[in-house]
From TrEMBL:
Protein's organism: Arachis hypogaea (Peanut)
Catalytic activity: a sn-glycero-3-phosphodiester + H2O = an alcohol + sn-glycerol 3-phosphate + H(+)
Lineage: Eukaryota, Viridiplantae, Streptophyta, Embryophyta, Tracheophyta
Annotated family: Belongs to the glycerophosphoryl diester phosphodiesterase family.
The protein, known as: glycerophosphodiester phosphodiesterase
Pro residues bias: start-end ranges: 141-151
Superkingdom assignment: Eukaryota
Length: 191
């Protein structure tokens, strides 16, 4: 009710309405939309995408099934999508006006239904936690420290070789800025 004092609508993430487990299966639904509707707020869900990686497996990689479930079962007032054409196609779908004669493919998905249908043989294996490493199991020696090495004891303070930057094995590449325009000029003359 505090939100109603400064807003007429609320935008929720999809996972706030239908949370997924770590394997992207729907397991439960929340009552947050109903609670916000009781506070007289419009509820919108975001962000819907057509890419299958953004959807729970229960929606069968079909963005229309996902939107349909959020609108009919989740009771959201609208959706925010990356693909407005998909939402418009859903809005104009004639199956939505068929009432009890609506085809089965337009019914919302059952929350947790797909996870119940999947046998343990097809679920990814549960990985056991790895035991902590012991020093004796590590084969490589530790890296040297990154602190600067001390100056050799034989160098004198008056020697300016310490002021010079150390040389490395990298070959310096000299670029001639005259060569590129010259090559373009020759190419133009030949054409």
């Amino acid at each position: 009710t505090d939100i109603k004092s400064f807003a007429n609508s609320v935008v929720l993430q999809k996972k706030s309405v239908y949370p997924t487990n770590s394997d992207l299966f729907l397991t439960v639904s929340t009552n947050i939309v109903t609670t916000l509707h009781h506070a007289n707020l419009s509820v919108y869900a975001q962000t819907f995408s057509n890419e299958f990686v953004s959807q729970a497996w229960d929606f069968f990689s079909d963005p229309t099934v996902e939107i349909n479930t959020f609108v009919q079962e989740g009771l959201v007032d609208g959706v925010i999508t990356d693909f407005p054409k998909t939402a418009d196609r859903y809005r104009r779908n004639k199956c939505l006006t068929m009432g009890d004669n609506m085809p089965v493919y337009m019914l919302p998905v059952q929350i947790g239904g797909l996870l119940q249908a999947v046998t343990k043989d097809y679920l990814p294996p549960a990985s056991a936690p790895l035991p902590p490493l012991k020093e004796s199991e590590v084969k490589e020696p530790p890296l040297p420290s990154a602190s600067p090495s001390p100056t050799p004891s034989g160098s004198s303070a008056g020697n300016n070789s310490a002021a010079q930057s150390p040389k490395n094995a990298q070959v310096k590449v000299t670029i001639s800025f005259l060569l590129s325009p010259l090559a373009v000029l020759v190419a133009c003359l030949l054409l």
